[in-house]
Amino acid sequence: MTNLTFSPHASMAPGLRKNGFSLIELMVAVTIGLFITLGLSQVFLSMYSTSKSQNSLAQFQDNERLALVMLTNTVELAGYFASPLTTTLASLQATAYTNTDGSVFSNGIGVVGKNTYPTTGTSDSLNVYYQSSGNDGVINCQGQPATTGTSTVFINSFTINSKNELVCAVTPIISGTTGSTTSALVLASNVASMTILYGVDVLGTGTTSSYLTATALNNSSPSLWPNVRTVQITLNFYVANVFNLATAPTTTTAWVQTINIMRAS
């Protein structure tokens, strides 16, 4: 009987294959990995771009809301005076006051402005005039109240500056003495223009019958400024290009707000 012996150094059978990956398999795996990485990168960039677009639109909407809230809260108070027992609208401004835009407040007028758009390429301006006793909760367009117990007349001036920002400055008149005008406060950015029409009770029926520009009101005789019942403000906002936020916006969208003056309602 023949004895069989096993040698550990014996070669493997020709039909058997060593474990491991071939070069082709490795190249295929690397290629698949690159495609997966590229796909994930595209998903990330798309989500990032969408997030930036949403943030830009949200900021745009916030600009619109803040601008219209401040304008509405201020214009509604035009001609307001603290105590009807001791004050009348006509006595608020005993002497005429000339605003920085050249418009003039006189007795019985709570709102005036200047009409320059689009003739000169600059926006219209608006000035609103009312009184606060300091403890009636009335604030100016910069959110500041009058000193407690001090009767103060606020002149709130709205303009669009050279940076396309809606700004407001306040001039206080305390006990007949005109104070220093505050620095302009930015209320909204990316404002292309502001145009203003004034709803006027031309026929004396107690309702708005015509919408006129400040120029038309200035040329009216007798003056129709005391008959203004509403103010229609159109703000044209620049809209960002959501597909390329790096480019400067060129298109605009209009927001129109008609504000009732409470004393005339």
Mean pLDDT metric = 82
Structural Rg: 35 Å
Q: What share of residues are in beta strands?
A: 25-35%
Q: What structural category characterises the helix and strand content?
A: alpha+beta
Largest sheet: 6 strands, antiparallel
Shape call:
elongated
Distance between the termini: 126 Å
Number of strands: 12
Count of DSSP H/I helices: 2
What would you note in describing this structure?
There is one protein chain. The protein is of the alpha+beta class. It has one domain. 22% of the residues lie in helices and 28% in strands. It is built from two helices and twelve strands; from the N terminus they run H-E-E-E-E-E-E-E-E-E-E-H-E-E. Strands 3, 4, 5, 6, 7 and 8 form a six-stranded antiparallel sheet that branches. A four-stranded antiparallel sheet has the order 10-9-11-12. The model has no long low-confidence stretch (mean pLDDT 82).
What attributes does this structure have?
transmembrane helix, elongated, Prepilin-type N-terminal cleavage/methylation domain, alpha+beta, 12 strands, transmembrane, 265 residues, membrane, four-stranded antiparallel sheet, six-stranded antiparallel sheet, PilW
